[in-house]
Specification:
Layout lengths: L19 H9 L2 H18 L3 H26 L4 H28 L4 H23 L17
Helix pairs in contact: 2-3, 2-5, 3-4, 4-5
Length: 153
């Protein structure tokens, strides 16, 4: 029944062992993660200063955008599969653009001093530049077809 199991430990390579602590440090020390956390802090401060109606209307969306950017980065950075990384990267981009556009909506409504909104816009622009550099490091040769046909050609 267990004939396929190989008891020979000579094949074990210590370098193949997963080190969760090292992986965690690599993700949370990455410049894109640091910038994501900066964006979250700026967004939380902006949302915290909104009146109740706007907080309900925009606040949850803005905070969801920032937390999605953080969580998708963690998932992408921890994966090696190109398709999975690209899927998560697209979601990150969409949420960053959504958050950016919210700054203009809030600006049109006169909810904040323009300087506060501009700080968030600048942080998102810095994020965009880091994002571009980050995706250049994806290996398109390391991909598995998930059956959906996206990013497989």
């Amino acid at each position: 029944m267990w004939d396929d199991f190989d008891d020979d430990e000579a094949d074990w390579d210590e370098d193949d062992e997963f080190d969760a602590r090292k992986e965690h440090q690599n993700i949370y020390k990455h410049p894109l993660m640091k910038k994501s956390k900066d964006i979250f802090a700026l967004t939380r401060a902006l949302v915290g200063s909104l009146d109740e109606a706007r907080k309900e209307l925009y606040g949850n969306i803005m905070l969801e955008d920032t937390t999605t950017m953080i969580s998708r980065f963690s998932g992408a950075e921890g994966a090696s599969d190109y398709v999975l990384k690209m899927e998560k990267a697209v979601v990150m981009k969409v949420h960053a653009k959504s958050l950016y556009s919210m700054t203009y909506q809030l600006g049109m409504e006169g909810t904040h001093a323009e300087e506060h909104l501009e700080l968030l816009r600048e942080a998102i622009e810095e994020y965009r530049l880091l994002f571009i550099e980050w995706i250049k490091g994806f290996d398109p040769n390391e991909k598995n077809d998930d059956g959906w046909g996206i990013f497989t050609d």
